[in-house]
Automatic annotation (TrEMBL):
<dbReference type="GO" id="GO:1901135">
    <property type="term" value="P:carbohydrate derivative metabolic process"/>
</dbReference>
<dbReference type="InterPro" id="IPR001347">
    <property type="entry name" value="SIS_dom"/>
</dbReference>
<dbReference type="InterPro" id="IPR035466">
    <property type="entry name" value="GlmS/AgaS_SIS"/>
</dbReference>
<feature type="domain" description="SIS">
    <location>
        <begin position="26"/>
        <end position="163"/>
    </location>
</feature>
<dbReference type="InterPro" id="IPR035490">
    <property type="entry name" value="GlmS/FrlB_SIS"/>
</dbReference>
<dbReference type="InterPro" id="IPR046348">
    <property type="entry name" value="SIS_dom_sf"/>
</dbReference>
<dbReference type="GO" id="GO:0097367">
    <property type="term" value="F:carbohydrate derivative binding"/>
</dbReference>
<keyword id="KW-0677">Repeat</keyword>
<dbReference type="Pfam" id="PF01380">
    <property type="entry name" value="SIS"/>
</dbReference>
<protein>
    <submittedName>
        <fullName>Fructoselysine-6-P-deglycase FrlB-like protein</fullName>
    </submittedName>
</protein>
């Protein structure tokens, strides 16, 4: 875990650089009023979900988020955004190849020496947020910061919150629990999905994620005194108290920027993984680039 701890801690500075990049590279990103699709795999898909919700909520236009293999054939868009840390994800490159000459495409990547640079009509490079760890942390949040800044959000509060969460104590007793549920609403559903993925990758924990109100419709049955239920953003009225009555450890900091709160989840995942003797830099069954039969290299993110 020599890399991931440092990469998690570097996020406030990476976010500052993403805000600055949004000012200079903003002309490459989707224009207000365009119908847009944004896609990626794994973590990048979850950041796409968050961005799509934020863009529509900001009144910038209809925005769909897809994992790379599930983009509907023939659906019309004014611009398509591909999010890939390595720039080598085979599914992402396949989509960009198919779309070439049909719709303007934008690639968001950390590595300017990879095929995504050639297959995208335009690119934005976040090389300052690239990572050595297989478990992705700062590239994901830096890309989302770029998107949020381009939509006009003031990220100064989020950066200040991040400076706190990189060192703040983890929720008391969280490392002793065995089951973790992450809940969001609106754009933070994507963050909840990403939080659960980080716990699975880095610590092999039993984790799930849901829209907060959907959690009431069945998934709540898994929760007991061994559970952590973590709200990314403000919880729906009454739900926090319902969960607390079950005996779960409830984590909710509604006044904190949810993207900054994700940092504490990353740190919890790494801490539990280390306590289990795992190496979060090299998760079981994962590599930064995966070779699948009959395909080119496939990035796990």
């Amino acid at each position: 875990m020599e890399f991931v701890t440092e990469e998690i801690a570097s996020q406030p500075e990476c976010w500052r650089r993403s805000v600055a990049l949004a000012e200079t590279a903003g002309g490459v990103l989707p224009r207000k009023g365009e119908r847009v699709a944004v896609f990626g795999c794994g973590t990048s898909w979850f950041m796409a979900q968050a961005y799509a919700n934020l863009r529509e909520a900001a009144g910038h236009g209809e925005t769909d988020a897809f994992t790379a293999t599930e983009i509907p054939a023939g659906r019309r868009y004014d611009r398509v955004v591909a999010l890939t840390r390595s720039g080598t994800t085979s599914e992402v490159l396949a989509v960009l190849s198919q779309l070439r000459g049909q719709v303007p495409t934008v690639g968001i990547t950390a590595d300017p020496t990879t095929p995504v640079m050639d297959l995208s009509d335009e690119t934005v490079v976040l090389d300052f947020a690239d990572e050595k760890s297989v478990v992705q942390t700062r590239f994901a949040t830096s890309a989302l910061t770029l998107f949020r800044a381009h939509l006009g959000a003031d990220l100064s509060g989020a950066i200040a919150d991040a400076e706190q969460t990189v060192t703040e104590a983890l929720p008391d007793g969280a490392t002793q629990r065995r089951q973790f549920t992450y809940l969001g609403a609106g754009w933070t559903i994507g963050l909840a999905n990403e939080a659960a993925l980080k716990m699975r990758e880095a610590s092999l924990s039993w984790t799930e994620s849901y829209p907060a109100m959907e959690y009431r419709h069945g998934p709540m049955s898994i929760t007991d005194s061994s559970s952590v239920v973590w709200f990314l953003g403000a919880p729906p009225a009454g739900l926090r108290d319902e969960v607390a009555k079950i005996g779960a450890l409830v984590v909710s900091v509604p006044d904190r920027d949810p993207m900054a709160e994700l940092i504490r989840v990353q740190r919890l995942a790494v801490t539990i993984g280390a306590e289990k003797g795992l190496d979060p830099d090299r998760p079981r069954n994962l590599t930064r680039s995966v070779i699948l039969s009959g395909t080119a290299g496939v990035d796990t993110k």
